[in-house]
Specification:
11 strands, Aspartate Aminotransferase, domain 1, alpha+beta
């Protein structure tokens, strides 16, 4: 196959996947219309209407949008942490549509006023997340890469009990040619999950002490900068808005002048990331403290 033919084949496969995606999306829209929004609300599968609050990126780099019900607040709902949801922008209650909102949700603007669970996880009687391979519409995705520092081995798991959903996942994996694994990755995954629990427990304690050292340093040495609460990772955020300098410029100068490399929050959200930097504390404590001292030295001398 020539280079040109390979590109054309990839473009064709992408087009087919897009057609499949939009077909399923339209089918769900029609299902929502046939059920009726009032019925979805009573079943706890939708919030309507709702008010959009602020948006932000959490420590897992996930976009979070705060939403608040403005009616039917006494109805129990089926929304849970980690469940996929869909937003609908509705010009009227009779004509639901999947058109994406254009205003900035972090400012609570626009008519983004309906939140529904998706067509996989909207079953009110669904069992809790199982440990033995998934049930109903549950899909479990996991990897030892971050916890055990094995990203270079490129090994992960997708656990799905539903045959049709598993077939579609398998198809997507093969189309994108990410189905091959290396034998070292398999051995490392088994060793990580079966034999490395004590090591991981010790690592978590060490990282937590790193976080405490970070908080103590900022509280004592740079009290104008606020460290955000850690939420299950080793990448804490720091509010640097008090410095009055754009975070991109701050990070550039920290690297070129202070010789310490941090990430600007705008890498993860052009608006919600303004005024924040992200640090990596998964390192020896001596290295962490040296980086913090360089940050303090730069700020005290230049800002």
């Amino acid at each position: 196959m020539t280079h040109t033919n390979a590109i054309l084949e990839l473009q064709r496969q992408r087009m087919l996947l897009e057609i499949e995606y939009f077909t399923e999306k339209e089918a769900f829209r029609k299902l929502t219309e046939s059920r009726g929004m009032a019925r979805l609300v009573k079943r706890g599968d939708a919030w309507f209407p709702l008010r959009v609050g602020k948006s932000y990126y959490n420590s897992l780099n996930q976009l979070c949008i705060e939403v608040h019900r403005t009616a039917d607040q006494d109805i129990e709902h089926n929304f849970e942490f980690g469940r996929p949801v869909q937003f609908f922008k509705q010009p009227s209650a009779q004509t639901p549509t999947t058109q994406a909102p254009t205003p900035n949700p972090s400012r609570g603007e626009g008519s983004l006023n309906t939140l529904t669970t998706d067509n996989i996880t909207s079953n009110a009687n669904q069992a809790p997340l199982p440990s033995g391979g998934g049930g109903g519409g549950c899909i479990i995705c996991c990897s030892p890469s971050k916890s055990f520092n094995t990203a270079g081995l490129q090994m992960a798991n997708i656990i799905c009990a539903d045959p049709e959903t598993r077939r579609r996942i398998d198809r997507a994996i093969n189309i994108n040619e990410v189905c091959d694994v290396n034998p070292f990755g398999i051995v490392a995954l088994e060793a990580a999950y079966n034999e490395s629990g004590q090591w991981l427990d010790e690592l978590c304690l060490y990282l937590w002490d790193n976080y405490r050292a970070l908080c103590h340093f900022f509280a004592g040495q740079l009290p104008q900068l606020q460290v955000c609460r850690l939420e299950g990772t080793y990448l804490p955020w720091v509010d640097v808005s008090a410095l009055g300098i754009p975070v991109e410029q701050l990070c550039h100068r920290l690297l070129s002048e202070g010789r310490v490399w941090v990430n600007p929050g705008t890498m993860y959200g052009p608006q919600s990331g303004q005024g924040y930097i992200r640090l990596n504390i998964a390192c020896p404590r001596s290295q962490l403290m040296e980086g913090l001292r360089r940050i303090k030295s730069f700020i005290c001398q230049n800002l």
